Amino acid sequence: MTEGRRTWWREPLLHFVVLGGLAFLMHRVLFGAPPSEYVAPANAPIEQIRQDWFAAKGALPDAKEEAALVQEWVEDEILYRRAIELGLDQNDTIVRRRLVQRMRFFLEDTYRIEPPTDAQLQAWLKRNPDEFALPSTTSFTQRFFSRGQRGTELGAAARCALEALEENPDATVDGDPFFRGSAFDDATASEITRAFGQAFTQSIDDVPLEQWSGPVKSSYGLHLVYVSSRSSAEAPKLETVRDKVERDWLRAERARHNEEALTKLRARYSPEAPE
Prior knowledge:
By secondary structure, the protein is α+β, with helices and mostly antiparallel strands. It has twelve helices and four strands. Helix 6 crosses helix 12 and helix 10 packs across helix 11.
């Protein structure tokens, strides 16, 4: 009797029952009970499948391709439903990010922004003048003297050329080729900086009009500069920047509506929200 009590857990029948129960449990976890709604090819969004294929391939699928696409949709739908049943969408950063993105799109689709009137755009332009101001520009010609080619003679060569140009502004001087060219018309400060560097841009603002000046340092060497004209920054008229103003106004309106929608959601989900 004592020996029987010690060895009951070794019985093959018990092992069979326990293993069978575990197998049944794992089957239910992985595959679950029969769904209340079966997935059938007839449920497939045929038009959407066709349009997606057309967008990718440039033609509608033939009968064989469409059948394969429908079968793929059925398999994806089955896996999707089972993943939701198992809670695989929970605590997943990628899924969460995607749902948040779709919710933001959904919020934007819940309202329609009417096209702005001229009065609204003019008011927006007046409220945000710095966003649309036309930048100041400078038109100038330069003669370049390369640091790499001139070496220790760089400064002397530039000063000698300047003396010649001061005597005769149209004189031909022995400068070096510059890969950006020699003439710049209505160049903005950012364009000048991209071509010559920040130090040159700051220096050229002090160059007097309509006379050869320099040498002005750049990232590449020395330059003699003749500034022919300058224009100050100015507020543009609506007709010249209408498209940009409208895009900016629509972006601001969309942001305002989104914030209003988020405010309502915050009130709903905050701890102080009424039940």
